[in-house]
Amino acid sequence: MEKLIITAAICGAEVTKDDNPAVPYTISEMVREAVLAYNAGASIIHLHVREDDGTPTQNINRYKQVINAIKEAIPDVIIQVSTGGALGMSIEERTDVLNLKPEMATLDCGSVNFGGDEVFINTENDIIYVAKKLQENNVRAELECFEKGHIDLVLRLLRKKIIDINQHFSFVLGVNGGMSGEERDFFFLKDSIPNTATYSVAGIGRFELPLAKLAIKHGGHVRVGLEDNLYVSKGVLAKSNAELVNCVVEIAKKENREIASANEARRILGLMEGKNE
Question: 0.90 exceeded by the pTM?
């Protein structure tokens, strides 16, 4: 079994310091959380950025500042930028960051309800637009799928050669309005992707660590972090992203699964070894 790739989703676009004071906003806070997560065992930093007051932004200059600051502190870490942005952003706004040519970026593979009146919209044309822009900039996609229909769309676009044959999926499970994070859901998605594909699991809220354990046992990889889950245990707020990464490392030890370094993650995912932004 391959070594385990741990991704730390350090801030997201929706959670705030009111939810958990450890959520980073400023550049120095982002660097601190990235370094702590990396030192705990994360080889990928899944990156949204905020203004200093916490406002989510896809501003390319803000992204450049944050990426450069993180890379200065931890040069070999893999930066995976978000093209999801925040609710209400245009697809052009969401994808401007790809012009920085990061190693990886997310590609959201369908729309999903986020509760109440909030809908995260990703039309088929949006998905094709992002897929082509990823290829134009030589950026490796992580295919974010919130339910089985998203995987089916990926496979259809694969047959049309719109999606790269070298696939890495992310199952985002437990979103309010999306597919749940029960064990049956994990296996349904895992068994729906090509045998040649790699995958990671991002469990939302209480699903984070149970799904991490399933992914570790069954050859997948894991995403954790304050974007997805604010608690290290029931009712106990995580003091940092590193605490959540440490939980995954402890599970991996019990399952005798070694943790991948950044360059080992590059090899597993087919990235150019040692590439820096």
Answer: yes
